[in-house]
Amino acid sequence: MVINRRRFLAGLLGASAALLGAGRHAGAAVSNKARIVVVGAGVGGSRAALALRRLLPKAEIVVIEKEPKFVWRPAAFEYALGLRSWDKITRSYDALAARGVKLIRATVQGIDPGRQRVTTTTGPQDYDLLLLASGIRLATETIKGLDLNPEVNACVYDPLQLPTLHKRIAAYQGGTILLSIPQQPLQCPPAPYEFVLLLSEHMRRQKIKGRIVVLDANTSPQPAPLASAFDAALQSHRDVIEYIPWIQVGAVEPGAKRVVSADGEAFSYDLLSLIPPHRAAHFIREAELAQAGDAFVEVDPVRFRSTRFQTIYALGDAARTPYARTASAASACAELCAHAMAKAVSATGREIELPATFDSPCYPYVNREQALLLRIAYALKRGNEEPRVESRVQTDTEPRARYVAQRAAWEQDLLQQIFGA
Ligand SMILES: Cc1cc2nc3c(=O)[nH]c(=O)nc-3n(C[C@H](O)[C@H](O)[C@H](O)COP(=O)(O)OP(=O)(O)OC[C@H]3O[C@@H](n4cnc5c(N)ncnc54)[C@H](O)[C@@H]3O)c2cc1C
Q1: Model-wide pTM > 0.90
Q2: Where do the structural domains in the chain lie, given as residue ranges?
Q3: Residues paired with residue 297 on neighbouring β-strands, in sequence order
Q4: Per the CATH hierarchy, to which homologous superfamily does domain 15-135+280-351 belong?
Q5: What are the phi and psi torsion angles at 336 (to 5°)?
Q6: Counting CB atoms within 10 angstroms of each CB, which of 10, 25, 32, 361 has the fewest?
Q7: 259-262: long-range contacts (C-beta < 8 A, 24 or more apart)?
Q8: Which CATH superfamily is domain 139-278 in?
């Protein structure tokens, strides 16, 4: 796949280090004593903040995060199924503070790009450069009845609902578990299928007689290169799992304990685990950082700078890029983005050297002991005209124990880089 976008020209090759935003620093290069505000201390935001700290020792690096602790999402299944404790899948943000990053516990509510200010639940924060790393938002409002009754659902994608999911699975003695998967864009596309397979395995091990109904808005398991492997795995669990593709959830009726599809078909449940469609935070749309009809920050995929405001950057799940919405990609992009931001505020900052390459490995479980491989190798190249992103996908659809071991090593390495443990 080659992504080649004409509008990179102005943003990537023509722009000087001086920022031309309409705000406080209009027309002037921001000094390397800049105040850089990062929204979100997930994988991307934390990693970028640490890289900025390293690259710009004189700058003030401020991270605004709404949650008290970091939750390692790739281990959400293990926690939900009682295989890992909450302590093992969370980390304290003290590790960031100890390395010179200022943390503010608050929820960002709005952005004023003209004044270079974000509004938060604890007051305004001004910035010279802003990095949006706020991840995805689960758009519960797209499923009728869900916003008014959030307690009926326990979603594996929502860190705040994970403890409830964990308790409900522990108490589950039979009946129907109803799980839904939205259409792309999807954070970590293999994750819902992994969860369903591990859940079914859990039921078999615990000898729980029940069934899992999966309503998938996609026509086949995602992502496409793993579709047949997941199909085969789901088939091997057909005594437990009923997989129904191409069904979009339209409404929840908690009184009747049923879900109604967009086409009016009803499905009853005893335990509900809907994954709502993915969007970016409301403030991104309100600040007009997304293209019409989209929900994610439009950025150039080499420097991660907004195509609308030159003092705003975005990466990870919140951004519209050619990269996968995975922790691997968010982490790699954080380094590239931090270099681009450092260059923008400092004459001594390093330009991203092209060609640059990075890998986004993923080891989706098909059972506790075996996983598949999906590795996307990205190459950022300077073509005749403009930088372009090429990607190459490598898969191994044969379940193997060694990928579970590689998954553990990948996790340890990534968390070590951010939290030191
Ligand atoms: C169940 C599951 C399994 C997964 N498995 C894998 C895997 O095996 N491999 C892999 O590579 N990826 C996996 N992923 C995907 C991976 O976790 C995400 O792609 C990654 O976390 C994205 O990083 P991010 O920094 O963009 O966003 P996030 O990690 O989501 O971080 C966003 C942060 O912003 C904060 N925030 C949001 N809004 C605000 C606000 N208004 N104010 C202040 N703070 C805010 C959030 O609290 C959060 O801390 C999985 C995801 C899930 C849900």
Answers
A1: yes
A2: 15-135+280-351, 139-278
A3: 290, 319
A4: FAD/NAD(P)-binding domain (3.50.50.60)
A5: -65, -45
A6: 10
A7: 259/178, 259/180, 259/215, 261/215
A8: FAD/NAD(P)-binding domain (3.50.50.60)
Q: Which atom of ligand 1 is nearest to the CA of 326?
A: 19
Q: Do domains 15-135+280-351 and 139-278 have the same CATH topology?
A: yes
Closest CA to 76 of 172, 170, 195: 195
Q: Is the CB of 316 under 6 A from ligand 1?
A: yes
- Three-class secondary structure of residue 122 per DSSP: coil
| pLDDT, tens digit, 9 for 90 and up, residues 149-183 | 999 999 999 999 999 999 999 999 999 999 999 99
8 Å CB contact between 174 and 209: yes
Nearest CA to ligand 1 atom 4: 74
pLDDT more than 70, % of the chain: 90
Say which amino acid occupies 322: P
What distance in Å separates the CA atoms of residue 77 and residue 99, rounded to the nearest whole number? Answer: 30
pLDDT in tens, 40-82: 999 999 999 999 999 999 999 999 999 999 999 999 999 999 9
Q: Which two tokens stand for residue 239?
A: 């005594």
Residue 211 has pLDDT above 90, yes or no: yes
Q: What is the pLDDT of residues 334-365, one digit of tens each?
A: 999 999 999 999 877 676 677 789 999 999 99
pLDDT value of position 351: 67
- 133 Cβ closer than 6 Å to some ligand 1 atom: yes
Assign residue 371 a region: left if phi > 0, alpha if psi is -120 to 50, beta otherwise? beta
Q: Does ligand 1 come within 6 angstroms of the Cβ of 221?
A: no
Cα 368–274–269 angle (5° rounding)? 95
